[in-house]
Amino acid sequence: MSLLDAQTLSRLGGLKVRARAVVEGVLSGLHKSPHQGQSVEFAEHKEYAPGDELRHLDWKAFGKFDRYYVKRFEHETNLRCTLVVDGSGSMGFGTTGLTKLDVARVMAATLAHLLLKQQDAAGVTIAAKGRVLEVPPRASAAHLQVLFDALERCEAAGATDLAATADLLAEKLPRRSLVCVFSDFLDDDAQALKRLLALRARKHDLALFHLVDPAELQFPYEDPTLFLSMEDDRRLEVNPREIKQSYLEEFGRFLDETKATCTAADVDYLRVRTDEPLDAALVKFLSGRAGGRR
């Protein structure tokens, strides 16, 4: 299996090239596809009644019994997946060659590629406060380029607004769907995550990819530093040595609470470091779901 970390991916070309490289790594790491396309199995006959589909008439049964019967089928509909990318300003942070948004775009594009390869439907929603781009799920091969183009145009700007994104999804998603959210979940609204997780209560299958830059985990700053907010005009000048321990404790608590809240809501949670191999991260996610859909 390939190991496509941030430094390797940063040397590759555009999103399409990066996504296809990760796809190859994912496919080499999976023994079988985690998704199944549409399956139609014959269940039983029923006597024809007005309104039944004429195309399901069983002419062999008519020849044998001189009565009209239609075939009834059990349908397993194709998976519909909406890939939600946080396009807020904080997603533009990156110290490894790729920003958090770069990683989100590559992972979303890779999953879209895999879904369409399996004849499932994939769509994209890119959101920040006051700014939303929606590409509805479709299953055609030509749709992949539409998704790539939307992800390529995404820029990190504005404030995080996961609550509004959750409300939008609750309103727009027409039926049970797989919803994959790529975000750093740095939202000033304390209820934002719970609003997002409420999609699970609506019977949607929800998976959260928590993107974290290694500098956020290690706080490797030593000299007096001026920190600038990436989402508004706030700024803070501090001595990193004085606040490092308290910062690490607070950030660690934030990570633990986010994971625990997701677990309690029966939602898949995967923390993704921006410097880790993305194909390995996706193999971990897909392998864990290979047993079946929810």
Q: What does this protein structure show overall?
A:
There is one protein chain. The chain is α/β, with parallel strands linked by helices and 294 residues long. It is 40% helix and 23% strand. It has helices at residues 6-10, 15-29, 59-65, 100-117, 143-153, 162-172, 192-201, 214-218, 240-264, 278-288, and strands at residues 39-47, 69-76, 80-86, 121-128, 131-138, 178-183, 205-212, 225-228, 235-238, 268-273. The strands form three sheets. The chain has a six-stranded mixed β-sheet, sandwiched between helices. The protein has a two-stranded antiparallel sheet with strand order 1-2. Strands 8-9 form a two-stranded antiparallel ribbon. Strand 8 (225-228) and strand 9 form a beta hairpin. Helix 6 (162-172) packs parallel to helix 7. The longest helix has 25 residues, at 240-264. Residues 31-43 and 73-77 have low confidence and may be disordered.
Indicate the topology.
Elements (H helix, E strand, L loop, with lengths): L5 H5 L4 H15 L9 E9 L11 H7 L3 E8 L3 E7 L13 H18 L3 E8 L2 E8 L4 H11 L8 H11 L5 E6 L8 H10 L3 E8 L1 H5 L6 E4 L6 E4 L1 H25 L3 E6 L4 H11 L6
Helix pairs in contact: 2-4, 2-10, 4-5, 6-7
